[in-house]
Automatic annotation (TrEMBL):
GO terms for cellular component: extracellular matrix; extracellular space. Residues 1-17 form the signal peptide. It comes from the Eukaryota. It comes from Leptosia nina. Keywords: Cuticle, Signal. GO terms for molecular function: structural constituent of cuticle. This is Cuticle protein 8.
Length: 127
């Protein structure tokens, strides 16, 4: 009985005509162009955390398509890296890196040699 019901459903589906609808690309609609505000900003920030030694700062300003700024940070070796940069449509992005200070590396700590004793063989206690 179940087989007859399935065959009946399949014959109904097969008997229906299958039609396909052609899809076309969307028609472009003209959009009104709104004037864009003149890009101009300026910001700066700084961090000085004596607990972690994180010392850094940045400043940047933009006037139209020209950007200029700089940032500096204290490297782990104690030197200060300062990067000054500019960017515009004519010259692209240009950065100049300066390092100031003298690098200080910690002295090497020598430890006494460690001697290892081989483990004793495990003997069976079951007799």
């Amino acid at each position: 009985m179940l087989i007859l019901g399935l065959l009946a459903c399949m014959s109904v589906v097969a008997a229906q005509a299958v039609t396909f609808t052609a899809f076309h690309a969307p028609v472009p609609v003209p959009v009104a162009v709104r004037p864009v505000a003149y890009p101009r900003y300026s910001f700066n920030y700084g961090v000085k955390d004596p607990h972690t030694g994180d010392i850094k700062s940045q400043q940047e300003e933009r006037n139209g398509d020209a950007v200029r700024g700089s940032y500096s940070l204290v490297e782990p070796d104690g030197t200060t890296r300062t990067v000054s940069y500019t960017a515009d449509d004519h010259n692209g992005f240009n950065a100049v890196v300066h390092r100031t200070g003298h690098a200080v590396h910690p002295a090497r700590v020598l430890h006494a040699p460690v001697h290892y004793t081989p483990a004793l063989p495990v003997t069976s206690f079951i007799r």
